[in-house]
Specification:
Number of helices: 25
Shape: elongated
Number of strands: 0
Order of helices and strands: HHHHHHHHHHHHHHHHHHHHHHHHH
Helix content: over 70%
Distance between the termini: 46 Å
C-alpha cells in the first residue's frame, strides 16, 4: 500500500514539473493542480489509485506549477524572512542558542512535511503561530501598542459602529448562512434521503445562490439526474414530475455553464456535462443534445488527451448509434493511451463485435481478461456462441474459462473452494456448458477440471459433476456430447415445480444456440 502511495505521489510530482514548464512565470493559478494534472495525465494512475487529484502532495512543486516563479519567489521569501528574524533575535539576545535550535528545527520539520504534503488548516495554523513567536522575539519592545490613558479629543462615532455592525451581519449572511444553505442542498442531492421530487427541489438553491461553489456542484447535480435513468419513462408520463425534471436539467446546465466559464481548462467539467447532455438526449429524444455531448467529450479529450473516461463515453455514443467505425477509432486511441488498462480493450472488443470483426474482438477480450478486467457476461456469451457457430468450440471454451477464472480467481476450479459472492445465472450457465465443449473436443483433462466450477458455484450440483467426471474418466462421452448443459434441463422443464435457477441457466444457451 505504501509503495502505491509513493508511486501516485511521484506521478503527481512529474505532472507538476511539466505544468511548471508550460507556464513558468505565473503558473496555472492557485489551487489549480487539477488543471496541470489534466494536461499531463499519466494513465498509469489507473493501476494505483483514484485518477482525480487536486493536490500535488508536495507544496513546493505545487507552488511552482500553480503560482510560477513569481509565487515561488514569494513563498521562498517567507522562509527567508523567518530565517533572518531568527538571526536578528539571536544577535539581539532575545533568543538563546537552544531557542534558535528548537525554532529552526521546527521550520525544517515543517518544510520536510510540506515536501510530502500540502498546506492544510491544522498544520498551517501552528506554523503561523510559531512564526508569530519568532517575530515577537525579533522585535524590540512591545508588539502591541497599548493606550496609556484617556486620549484627549476622542469622540464616539455611532455611524461607524453601526456601519461595522451592518458589515459584520452581511459577512455572516454572505459567508456563513448562504454557503451553509448551499452545502446542505448539495449534501441532500449527493446522499438523497427523501423522494426524487424533494431532492430535485434543491437544484434551485444551487443554481440561484450567490455563494461560491466548487466544480463538484454541477457534477453532483448531473450524477443524481443520471441515477434516475431507470425511472425516466415513469417521469416522462407524469406532468408534474416532468416539469420538475425539466427545471433540474435547465438549472444543472446553467451551473455547468457558470463553472466552465470560471474554469475553462477543467476537462472533468466537460466530461460530466457531456454525460448530462446524453441523459437529456435520451429523455427528450434530441439529436441536438447528443451532438452537444459529442462536442463536450471532444473538448475534454483535447484538454486531457491521456484520460480514458471521456473517450469511453464518446465511444458509447457512437456504439449506440451503430457507428462502429468511429467507435473503433476512439477506442483504439484509448488503448494506445495506456496499453495496460483492461476496460478500453473490453469496450474495443464490443465495438469489434458490432462491426462483425470476430477475430479482433476475441483478441481484445482475451487481452482485457489477462489485464484483470471483467465486463458483462453477455459480451462473452455473444462472442463464445459466434465461435461455436463457426466450429471453433475449443476457442470458445478457452474464452469462457478465462472469463470465469478472471472473475472468480483460480478458486473456481477447486471443488473445495468457496465462492462467497452472488453468482449470476449466466455464469452458472457458462459453468454448466463449458465442460461439454472440452468433452466434445476430447480434452478429458480440461473437461474434468472445468466441471469443478459448477460445484464451486452450487455445491448441491456435486452429484451431477461427479457423474460427469466418472463418465469422462471412463471414456463414456456419448451421453454428454449432445447436451448443452450439465444441468438436467429437460427434467426441470417438465417438472411441476421447476428450479428457477436451473431453468434460467438452461435457457441461456438454448436461446444462444
Amino acid at each position: 500500500m505504501a509503495r502505491r502511495c509513493d508511486n501516485s505521489r511521484t506521478i503527481q510530482w512529474r505532472a507538476a514539473i511539466d505544468g511548471f514548464k508550460d507556464r513558468p512565470l505565473l503558473g496555472y493559478g492557485l489551487e489549480n493542480h487539477n488543471l496541470a494534472w489534466s494536461a499531463h495525465f499519466d494513465p498509469r494512475i489507473y493501476g494505483i489509485d483514484t485518477d482525480i487529484y487536486d493536490r500535488t502532495h508536495n507544496q513546493f512543486l505545487e507552488t511552482l506549477a500553480t503560482a510560477g516563479l513569481v509565487g515561488a519567489a514569494a513563498f521562498l521569501g517567507i522562509w527567508i524572512a523567518i530565517g533572518v528574524t531568527l538571526a536578528r533575535a539571536y544577535r539581539a539576545g532575545r533568543l538563546s542558542a537552544a531557542g534558535v535550535a528548537v525554532l529552526s528545527g521546527l521550520q525544517v520539520a515543517y518544510a520536510t512535511y510540506l515536501f510530502f504534503w500540502f498546506f492544510d488548516l491544522n498544520s498551517t495554523m501552528l506554523w503561523i503561530l510559531i512564526a508569530a513567536v519568532i517575530a515577537s522575539r525579533g522585535t524590540v519592545g512591545s508588539v502591541v501598542l497599548e493606550a496609556s490613558g484617556h486620549v484627549e479629543g476622542a469622540k464616539t462615532r455611532p455611524i461607524l459602529a453601526l456601519a461595522s455592525i451592518v458589515a459584520l451581519a452581511a459577512a455572516i449572511y454572505g459567508e456563513g448562512y448562504t454557503p451553509l444553505r448551499v452545502s446542505r442542498a448539495l449534501a441532500e442531492i449527493d446522499s438523497p434521503s427523501g423522494s426524487p421530487a424533494q431532492t430535485l427541489s434543491q437544484y434551485e438553491v444551487l443554481s440561484n445562490s450567490a455563494a461560491r461553489q466548487s466544480a463538484q456542484t454541477p457534477m453532483v447535480m448531473g450524477g443524481f439526474i443520471g441515477s434516475l435513468r431507470p425511472r425516466l419513462n415513469e417521469i416522462r408520463g407524469n406532468p408534474s414530475q416532468r416539469r420538475m425534471l425539466d427545471r433540474a436539467f435547465t438549472e444543472s446546465f446553467a451551473v455547468f455553464s457558470r463553472e466552465i466559464h470560471r474554469d475553462t481548462l477543467n476537462d472533468r467539467l466537460y466530461t460530466h456535462e457531456g454525460a448530462l447532455l446524453l441523459e437529456a438526449a435520451q429523455f427528450y429524444g434530441s439529436p441536438s443534445y447528443q451532438q452537444q455531448a459529442i462536442d463536450a467529450f471532444h473538448k475534454a479529450i483535447e484538454l486531457s488527451p491521456h484520460r480514458v473516461q471521456q473517450r469511453l463515453l464518446l465511444a458509447d455514443v457512437y456504439t449506440g448509434e451503430r457507428d462502429y467505425e468511429r467507435a473503433l477509432v476512439v477506442l483504439s486511441d484509448a488503448v494506445k493511451s495506456d496499453p495496460q488498462l483492461g476496460e478500453p480493450r473490453y469496450k474495443l472488443a464490443q465495438a469489434y463485435i458490432g462491426a462483425g470483426r470476430s477475430d479482433s474482438a476475441l483478441a481484445m477480450l482475451q487481452s482485457s481478461l489477462g489485464l484483470g478486467f471483467v465486463g458483462a457476461p453477455d459480451t462473452y456469451l455473444s462472442m463464445g456462441t459466434r465461435l461455436e457457430f463457426a466450429g471453433r468450440s475449443k476457442e470458445a471454451a478457452k474464452l469462457y474459462a478465462d472469463y470465469l477464472e478472471a472473475k472468480y480467481t483460480k478458486a473456481v476450479w477447486s471443488r473445495s473452494g468457496v465462492i462467497d459472492t452472488p453468482v449470476p445465472t449466466a455464469d452458472i450457465a457458462v459453468a454448466a456448458h463449458l465442460p461439454l465443449l472440452y468433452a466434445r473436443a476430447q480434452d478429458s483433462e480440461l473437461a474434468i477440471k472445468t466441471a469443478a466450477a459448477l460445484s464451486a458455484f452450487d455445491p448441491s450440483r456435486a452429484s451431477i459433476v461427479d457423474r460427469f467426471v466418472s463418465d469422462i474418466g471412463a471414456r463414456r462421452r456419448g451421453s454428454w456430447v449432445a447436451r448443452n448443459s450439465l444441468l438436467p434441463c429437460a427434467s426441470v422443464r417438465a417438472s411441476r415445480w421447476p428450479d428457477s435457477v436451473v431453468l434460467g441457466a438452461c435457457g441461456v444457451f438454448r436461446r444462444k444456440l
